[in-house]
Design a protein that fits this description.
62 residues, mainly alpha, 0% strand
């Protein structure tokens, strides 16, 4: 597995560690899940936008 170095405010890191601890998970697990969720939502948004654009195009072209 690759390693990534990121910078973030100490306060934010403390919140991440608290949530991870409450869920009995590692910081890395929590951040990986958050990124997977973000990417999935972004993919859905892009798909919905493409569908909306296709509907607009169809309406314009009749």
């Amino acid at each position: 597995m690759a390693r990534v170095l990121i910078s973030m405010p100490e306060r934010f890191l403390n919140e991440i560690d608290e949530i991870a601890g409450n869920e009995n998970r590692t910081r890395s697990e929590l951040i990986r899940e958050a990124l997977r969720t973000y990417m999935h939502r972004n993919e859905l948004r892009n798909s919905q936008k493409a569908s909306q654009n296709a509907q607009i195009l169809e309406a314009l072209l009749g």
